[in-house]
Specification:
Elements: H1 2-20, H2 31-34, E1 38-43, E2 55-63, E3 66-74, E4 88-106, E5 118-138, E6 144-169, E7 173-180, E8 182-195, E9 198-199, H3 204-216, H4 220-226, E10 231-242, E11 245-251
Antiparallel strand pairs: 1-2, 1-11, 2-3, 3-4, 4-5, 5-6, 6-7, 6-8, 6-9, 7-11, 8-10
């Protein structure tokens, strides 16, 4: 699925570059078109991470070469998985959302038509929040028994600039592509581990699974040694971010 999105973005990016090389002309738009100041869009990009993600966007044209947009929706990351060959029952709870907004500036000399058609740059801010709880219960095994519960939350706050191109087809249908969006992001996260999982560490079979758990979830080794903990750590960091987006919309 990810490869499909990458191919789609690459194709439209190529179209954009070809369009940029064409002869420039002054922007012209019919009176009827200029009266259509709203665009309602479906953001396909979050479905890369989880097919249940639903994200909608609204863009409002504020001038011949300017607009703003807001974006919001349901946001889930891929489910955390473990080896299930020791008869584990999994109960997953997860919830998340995303909110973002941008101010767009369409290039006057470059574009043949007024906003929301053509090449643009903008400034944006976004928030992504995700929380989860995964419960793994060993139901029937001579190698392990008990329950392991992982819970936590992740927050990502980003701000940056973007470069994109929006195609307006037959005056109504739009394809909005953001193919460059460097940003500065802050990441916060908490991970809680608790339970009473007990394993036979002498078994070579279970040792392989044990190694996977410890490598993927720091703190699991402490849980297995002390039988039960309820420990939650918080992480905060700053780092680079990147925004890219594919949206299909209707102009009215």
């Amino acid at each position: 699925m990810k490869k499909i999105y990458i191919i789609v973005i690459a194709i439209f990016f190529g179209i954009t570059l070809t369009s940029v090389s064409q002869t420039k002309s002054n922007a012209t738009t019919s009176t009827d078109e200029r009266s259509r100041l709203n665009v309602l869009k479906w953001n396909l990009t979050p479905m890369i991470w989880n097919g249940r993600n639903i994200n909608l966007s609204y863009e409002r044209v504020t001038s011949d070469f300017g607009s703003f947009s807001v974006n919001a929706g349901y946001f889930l990351l891929p489910s955390i998985g473990l080896l299930d060959s020791i008869n584990m029952e999994k109960a997953n709870k997860q919830f998340g959302f995303t909110i973002s907004g941008d101010k767009r500036y369409y290039f006057k000399k470059r574009n043949k038509r007024h906003a929301p058609d053509g090449l643009y740059w903008g400034i944006f801010g976004s928030v992504h929040y995700y929380e989860f709880e995964n419960s793994f219960t060993v139901t029937d095994s001579e190698y392990a028994k008990g329950t392991l519960i992982l819970n936590g939350d992740i927050g990502i706050f980003s701000a940056g600039v973007e470069l994109g191109y929006q195609f307006v087809l037959k005056n109504n249908i739009t394809i909005d592509l953001i193919f460059m969006g460097p940003a500065l992001s802050s990441y916060t996260g908490k991970l809680g581990i608790k339970g009473d999982l007990q394993v036979d560490k002498e078994s070579e079979y279970i040792k392989a699974i044990y190694d996977v758990l410890v490598a993927k979830y720091p703190g699991v080794d402490k849980l297995l040694d002390e039988k039960s903990i309820n420990d939650k750590g918080t992480v905060f960091s700053l780092g680079p971010g990147l925004r890219y987006m594919v949206q299909i919309g209707y102009r009215f």
